[in-house]
Amino acid sequence: MLFKRVKSLDQILATAEKKGLTRQLGPIQLTLLGIGAIIGTGIFVLTAEAGQKAGPGMMISFVIAAVICALAALAYAELASMVPVAGSAYTYTYGVLGESVAWVVGWALVLEYTIAASTVCVGWSGYVNGLLAHGGFGLPEFLRTGPMDGGTFNLLAFLIGLAITFLLVIGTSKSAKVNAFLVLIKVAALTLFIFVALPAVKDPNFKPFVPNGWGSPMGGIGVLGAAASIFFAYVGFDAVSTAAEETKNPNRNIPIGLIGSLGVCTVYYLLVSYAAVGSVGAQPMLGPDGLALQPGTPAMAAACHASQALVCSKEALAHVMRLLNHNQLGNLIGFAASIALPSVILTMTYGQTRIFFTMARDGLLPSSLAKIHPRFHTPYVITIITGVFVSLFGAMFPVGALADVTNSGTLFAFMMVSLGVLILRVKQPDRPRSFRTPMAWVVCPLAMFGCLLLFFNLSLKTIIIFFSWAAVGLVIYYLYGYRKSHLANGTEPD
User: Fold this and answer.
1) Residue 2: inside a domain
2) By C-alpha distance, which of 24, 106, 77, 169 is closest to 361?
3) Residue 257 falls within a domain, yes or no?
């Protein structure tokens, strides 16, 4: 039953033609879309969390996460070039493993995109609150963070989520143009950081290099635990594939956007992490038992009170500049992050709405969610609903907890995509592939193994949340989607 109701790739393409979105994005816009999604809270904010989990060893964590993402990107590129429609991993799974598994993947992608957008809302608010505080206009403490971080309601995270939602409602091409401008700001800020921090690197700051060891399953600490968290820093390249239905010449341009954006970002991440660790150090905060505290907990918040340690900062790169006595540069990088991070919120929210749009078009969600705005030509109903939840999650939860939950859904989706490539190689070997994953029978199993390794190095709490979320999703599917599915009923989208 699990693998029944497989929607053929030809059916998927035909459905998209009948009720599709306007093709208006080219290879440069797609690459910038990917860079816009990737470079964000992961490097600007989660550098501090990675330091808490792995110390200077977080540089190895960046490499591990990059390798696993690169393997998954090669699998994504093949499927995206074969099935250039909206929906990302959900659509690919529907065409290979069937409706039930596709639903679980689509439901897991909510954790990737919606929670990721919320994570960046929190990261953005940290930088803006830092700028306001240095300028003497800081918000009251209870409006700076959510309940788990010592506050009550993160007002700025809530407001930026709503603002991005409005931008997405008024049009994709407008959003892409804004995104391109914001990407340039982010890249310039990271380049400035590298240029200033590299000369300050000192060898003692790398010792001990791996203070928390390599980690243990479901412990969430150590090099692998940091890799599982910092994986979030690379999440977003697959958002390029969600734009397939709005891409000109997708068979050529989707692989360019996927692999190009990931390559550019990996180089920047390695340089930034080396410069940050080497210039000011990144040793973890320890509890009374001598063990590293979990980021995003009240105990960590208490230990970090009034501390200047990098691992405690909510504006990591700006904080490094200030510790190096470059206060104005710190403010400048903080300003750049404040201006540029919304592009990640935009891309993640965009990706989520396109996945929901596709699920509604397939009948697994109410068709009213797939309504297209008569003037702006965007799926405005689901965009508004998604945006409200993004804003609320950002207002209530800390960045670290949100990032780990995001990664759980992402890792599961990546595993399914890699498996799908192999199944299609066996079942449909002659189907045209404008991009073929090189050494697929090596690359895809390694991608699946890497995703499993990181998944089980998330904290036990995060893993429980993932499986609980999946269970809720299956209940919704069998109460609604199983009966309403257009594929099962032989009906067409409205």
Assistant:
1) no
2) 106
3) yes
